[in-house]
Specification:
4-stranded mixed sheet; Rossmann fold; 452 residues; GMP Synthetase, Chain A, domain 3; 19 strands; 11-stranded mixed sheet; 2 domains; alpha/beta; 31% helix
């Protein structure tokens, strides 16, 4: 859908976005049967994997039957990449059919490429237009895309805003002073960046004598790449700083840029179920869980041609809500609240960094900046939290530490071994994704380095 065909009402594609649940499931089953057959017939990896598991695409008679098909993960992608061709054995098309590739950051291993055919790319950007429209963007808006364009899958999402009809400024990862100059000179109404950088940029504006609420025109901020956008206290802090509404977006290079986003009710992120089938599985056993139970999110593409993704273990922990949203949309909402890699266990209690952020952001005596350090002592996992005192000396560091300690014990179920309190401004502010989690456990490092 192009700008000249853009809708006038509440929905970008009302038929798709408000489809009854039973029709969504029928539609997904048909697409899933086609995708499994397509992957088996065209991608060498899937033929070998399905045959080894003793299963065939024809064995999928219901959506529930998908649980019998093998998982893939990042290691699968790394191992298959470059085998037999540049695109590797997961690809289902020749290189001549690919018009775009992105790469993962490589933060947890060798960077993996994500290829797109022309059809894949165009359908992806139509989903981006849908999510932008859902978050309130209209053709009369000015939008600055402050995401990395260097091989990052979120870079091209600016095209979704252009297709919607908005005036788009391709900002990228500009130096902060240059970006602030553009915000003040061009007065865009929308911006997309990470939660950490949204906070940092707002603070930098104030330090330079610019009030984001009064002197800038930003009315909505899209954030992605970190947990903060779905943590109410973090979102509220950014909104108070900017006087703008914050919307969390979610995507991964294995599928395409943003594939889920919040609506005006901020109760989970609507995922594009006409393109992605979502499952939730037990973190330890991999067994399928009912919707609404917390587990690892598993994604299967329904329309992808360049590289079908069948039962991809994302490593993201969350729940899937199938109830109709107050906004009228019927597509499932995902609520991501952590990463399996980041979860750690203290005294038999699962602790998630997102819960720590939720807690720290709600304590008025600290700035909201924090670092979590996880380590082993006497064969026991422990964690330490570093925060900043925001009271300018009115409350002692000891009292601030005690408040943080008690709040974390209440929220997480187990208190930290130590709370370090530093002066305001000590912790480094991030200009992209904040490095808030430090894992010093020897067993974890050894496991990661082995590639397992």
């Amino acid at each position: 859908m192009t700008a000249k065909h853009a809708p006038k009402g509440k929905y970008w594609d009302e038929k798709i976005e408000t489809m009854p649940r039973e029709h969504i499931r029928e539609y997904q089953l048909r697409l899933l049967q086609e995708e499994l057959r397509y992957a088996y017939d065209n991608a060498p990896y899937y033929k070998r994997s399905f045959d080894k598991a003793g299963i065939s695409p024809s064995d999928l008679g219901s959506l529930g039957d998908l649980k019998n098909f093998p998982f893939i993960d990042k290691k699968t992608q790394r191992d298959a990449q470059g085998v037999g061709s540049f695109l590797g054995e997961l690809a289902a098309v020749p290189e001549d059919d690919v018009v775009f590739v992105s790469t993962s950051s490589g933060s947890t291993g060798v960077p993996t490429i994500s290829p797109f055919t022309r059809q894949d790319f165009d359908e992806w950007q139509d989903v981006e237009s849908r999510l932008f429209w859902q978050a309130g963007m209209r053709p009369s808006d000015r939008y600055i895309h402050a995401l990395n364009f260097s091989l990052y899958v979120g870079g091209p999402d600016v095209i979704g805003a252009q297709n919607l009809g908005a005036l788009c400024i391709w900002g990228g990862t500009l130096p902060s002073d240059r970006l602030i100059f553009i915000l003040k000179s061009y007065q865009p109404t929308y911006i997309w960046t990470s939660p950490s950088y949204a906070w940092y940029l707002g603070e930098t504006c104030r330090k330079n004598g610019i009030d984001p609420k009064e002197e800038l025109a930003i009315k909505r901020i899209f954030v992605a790449g970190e947990m903060g956008g779905s943590i109410p206290a973090t979102r509220a802090a950014i909104e108070a700083l900017w006087g703008a509404e914050v919307f969390d977006f979610y995507g991964l290079s294995d599928i395409f840029g943003a594939c889920a986003a919040q609506c005006e009710y901020h109760d989970g992120l609507h995922i594009a179920e006409d393109h992605i089938y979502v499952e939730t599985v037990d973190l330890q056993t991999g067994e399928l869980l009912p919707a609404g139970e917390r587990g690892e999110l598993i994604y299967t593409t329904l329309r992808k041609k360049a590289r079908p993704i069948i039962r991809f273990r994302t490593g993201d922990i969350g729940i899937v809500n199938l109830e109709k949203c107050l906004c009228g949309r019927t597509h499932a909402r995902i609520l991501v609240d952590g990463r399996k890699d980041d979860m750690f266990i203290v005294s038999a209690v699962n602790v998630y960094p997102s819960d720590i952020e939720y807690t720290v952001r709600e304590i008025p005596e600290v700035t909201g900046e924090y670092v979590v350090r996880v380590y082993e002592e006497n064969f026991t996992c422990k964690y330490e939290v570093t925060v900043e005192n925001a009271t300018a000396g009115r409350i002692s560091d000891g009292d601030v530490a005690a408040r943080v300690n008690n709040a974390l014990r209440t929220r997480c179920g187990v208190k930290p071994a130590n709370v370090v309190v530093l002066p305001d401004g000590t912790l480094e502010r991030s200009t992209h994704k904040a490095k808030r989690f430090i894992d010093e456990r020897v067993t974890t490092k050894t496991h990661a380095e082995s590639g397992k």
